Amino acid sequence: MFDKISIFYMTGTGNSFKVALWFAEIAKSLGLLVNLRQVKMTKLETKTDIRTLCVFVFPTHSFTAPILILKQIFFP
Question: Which sign does the torsion angle of CA 68, 73, 22, 49 carry?
């Protein structure tokens, strides 16, 4: 089971941010530590361990993830 959740979100209109907040509220109500981070132009420092669940929330672009999200996931 997970002790911590890191939520990485990218939003344009605010809809993805709202979903990330909903997710964070539910996780907090379950007693988990939550780290909410916005993905921007610069690379985010990710320090996670085996007990941390990473969640990515983003709008789809042409049926895929935005390039900034893909870089965050595949090139840590």
Answer: negative
The tokens of 1 are what? 């089971």
What value does the mean pLDDT take over residues 42-53? 73
Residue type, 5: I
Split at pLDDT 50, 70, 90, the class of 44 is: low
Q: Which pLDDT score, from 0 to 100, does residue 39 have? A: 85
Whole-prediction pTM value? 0.81
End-to-end CA distance of the chain: 23
In order of 2, 9, 12, 49, the CA distances from 58 in angstroms are 22, 6, 9, 23
Domains along the chain?
A: 4-74 (3.40.50.360)
